[in-house]
Design goal:
This protein is of the alpha/beta class and 613 residues long. 35% of the residues lie in helices and 22% in strands. The chain contains 18 helices and 26 strands. β22 (473-477), α15 (481-496) and β23 (500-504) form a beta-alpha-beta unit. α7 (270-278) runs parallel beside α12, α7 runs antiparallel to α13 (437-456) and α8 (309-324) packs parallel to α12. The N and C termini lie close together (11 Å). 56% of the residues are buried. The structure holds fructose -6-phosphate. Fructose -6-phosphate (F6R) is lined by residues 308-311, 354-356, 359, 362, 406-407, 490, 494, 609-610.
């Protein structure tokens, strides 16, 4: 999704903006641009393509200044072209605007502005904003007032930043789209440029190497940032207090280090991520979350989960564990829930599972639940995210930043967190942890090393080579292995572009079996539960000549013997084996994609954080 950056007060704003854009590349984009206000007007350089290409363009343009905006565009209105790239300007070129989100009433505003004589040069919804500001400036308003009046005309979701040639400042606001504000007060007198530098961005990694002091802006906030300071006001102009918070993520967390891809690095980080998710939450045989008091779930009668993509699969996993503990739990695709919500009542808790905390579909589903009086909870990775701020309660998965578009470590951290949450809810509702809790909590403490040995001993690369020339790839599993099968298929299709589908093993014979041939390998995920039935499914596909690759713990000898190949995982608690199997499937996808020379971290058409519905 689109990424916004702004730098104010830096000696060389352009280099800060480009660093920010590079750090936001993971969000997915198809064009990029910058605008700098430098006392000689506003200069805009932008183009369709990659940030590298923008850098080349800038190297021959000698653009400089202390105040600027940057943008990576992920097309929604109009194809990726130079004209549609941001920043967008008004007719006079005195001001420039970048935007993330969707302006729903853009057609009506465009008609109105065209009628007033404005000329549009792009197909974007965004371009109405600079022309609206221009209109209000012509009406006699100052830059700030014109910006506020323009924003008041918009409906939809947006994070917007603006520069004007008459002011050494950036104006910005947000409504339903992420925008964070980085503060580097520059108090080090030894520094070559001891003045303050400020940043605006769609996500903290954009400026993390410059500052870890962040203000999480709220919807409706209008911020004016100049080299000598900033103020934050509400839409009416009344000052609002927003604390400056220090983020715990370090710049190294958002570097690739020695790895070829972020995805590979993040797969490898899973032992640490899982240890962080568990730390302090499972002591002396009791599950406790820092943010939840004892008895917090005593009134819960059922759990509804909403999520998208990989997070949806993690939620399916968590719901299965809740049901196994006697707690009714169902999972809904957030986009469906937002429009066709199921019945719910006072005993329902609505849990949004979202790594980013910014996924528009998930936020819409949570808002729908809230509007109907439901209690809401966010399970997220990002402190200060919209989901964390809007929900009644939040549990953080503590995975650290995830840059690769394909979610990997956050799936594992979500599953671990939801496993703990299932036990925690069960204790409040039933009065005790489940019978399996002691073994489960022991296995959770061993899980980082089990993931470590899965990574160290994996034969996923040779399996990827062996089956690299297949027509399609199928994944099957039962119980907690079902979401793992779905996730294995999603990961493979999104980064390798190969056709892949996941099925509940029992459903094969009700249709998908028609697709199975000797050139469609079937990955059978075994957890130690439902083994006999899984063996039946393996026989069904073997009889049609399909090669079977078991993903199984050593104890599942019968499954391994029935298969042509095995991706082994260590024995663990049956409720956690699926997570280990998923690590093997992540590696399988990664190797399949690299063998095909795919851009693993930035798969085509996809964005890390999907901030439009
Ligand atoms: C797949 C992937 C997506 C996300 C989905 C939800 O690898 O990353 O399917 O899981 O867009 O994102 P979050 O969890 O940020 O709500």
């Amino acid at each position: 999704m689109c990424g916004i950056t702004a730098a104010v007060g830096a000696d060389d704003a352009v280099s800060r903006l480009l660093t920010g854009l590079e750090n936001l590349e993971y969000r997915g984009y198809d064009s990029a641009g910058v605008a700098v206000a430098n006392g000689n007007g506003v200069e805009v350089i932008k183009r369709e393509g990659q940030v590298d290409e923008l850098v080349d363009l800038l190297s021959s343009a000698s653009v400089g200044g202390h105040v600027g905006l940057g943008h990576t565009r992920w097309s929604t209105h109009g194809p990726p072209t130079n004209a549609n790239a941001h920043p967008h300007t008004d007719c006079s070129g005195e001001l420039a605007v970048v935007h993330n989100g969707i302006i729903e009433n853009h057609a009506e505003l465009r008609d109105r502005l065209r009628g007033a004589g404005h000329t549009f040069t792009s197909d974007t919804d965004t371009e109405v904003v600079p022309h609206l500001v221009e209109e209000y400036l012509a009406d006699g308003a100052g830059v700030e007032a014109a910006f506020r009046r323009a924003v008041a005309d918009l409906s939809g979701s947006y994070a917007i930043a603006l520069v004007h040639e008459d002011e050494d400042a950036v104006y910005a606001t947000r409504q339903g789209s992420p925008l964070v504000f980085g503060v580097d007060e520059g108090t080090d007198p030894q520094s070559a440029s001891p003045g303050a530098t400020y940043y605006l961005a769609s996500d903290v990694p954009a400026f993390l190497e410059f500052t870890d002091d962040v203000v999480y802006l709220e919807d409706g906030d209008v911020v004016r940032v100049a080299p000598d300071g900033y103020d934050i006001t509400d839409p009416e102009g009344t000052a609002v207090e927003r604390p400056v918070e220090s983020v715990e993520w370090s710049p190294d967390d958002v570097e690739k280090g020695t790895f070829d891809h972020y995805m590979r690095k993040e797969i490898d980080e899973q032992p640490t991520a899982i240890a962080q998710a568990v730390r302090g939450r499972a002591e002396d045989g009791r599950v406790a979350f820092e943010s939840l008091s004892d008895g917090a779930f005593a009134d819960v009668e059922r759990v509804q989960f909403v999520a998208c993509g990989t997070s949806y699969h993690a939620a399916l996993y968590g719901a299965q564990l809740l049901r196994d503990r006697g707690i009714p739990a169902r999972v809904f695709l957030a986009s469906e829930y937002a429009t066709t919500a199921p019945p719910a009542d006072d005993g329902t808790i609505l849990v949004g599972v979202t790594q980013s905390g910014e996924t528009a579909d998930t936020l819409a589903a949570l808002r729908r639940g809230r509007s109907e009086g439901l209690r809401t909870m966010a399970v997220t990775n990002v402190v200060g995210s919209t989901a964390a701020r809007e929900c009644d309660e939040t549990v953080f998965i503590r995975a650290g930043p995830e840059i690769g578009v394909a979610a990997t470590k956050t799936f594992s951290s979500q599953v671990v967190t939801l496993t703990l949450l299932a036990e925690r809810i069960r204790r409040d509702v039933v009065g005790s942890h489940s019978e399996t809790a002691p073994e489960l909590l022991d296995a959770l403490s061993e899980l980082p090393s089990a993931v470590g040995s899965t990574l160290a001993d994996s034969s996923a690369e040779s399996v990827a080579e062996r089956y690299g020339d297949s027509d399609a790839y199928f994944f099957i599993g039962r119980g907690t292995a079902h979401p793992v099968a779905l996730e294995g298929a999603l990961k493979l299709k999104e980064i390798s572009y190969e056709h892949a589908e996941g099925f509940p093993a029992g459903e094969l014979k009700h249709g998908p079996l028609a697709l199975v041939t000797p050139n469609t390998p079937v990955f059978a995920v075994a957890t130690g539960a439902h083994t006999e039935k899984l063996l039946g499914s393996i026989e069904e596909v073997s009889a049609r000549g399909a090669p079977v690759i078991a993903v199984a713990p050593r104890s599942e000898q019968a499954v391994a013997e029935a298969a042509d190949d095995v991706l082994w995982v260590p024995d663990s608690h049956p409720e956690l084996v699926g997570l280990l199997a998923n690590v093997q499937l992540q590696l399988l996808s990664y190797h399949t994609a690299t063998l095909l020379d795919r851009p693993v971290d930035k798969p085509r058409n996809l964005a890390k954080s999907v901030t439009v519905e």
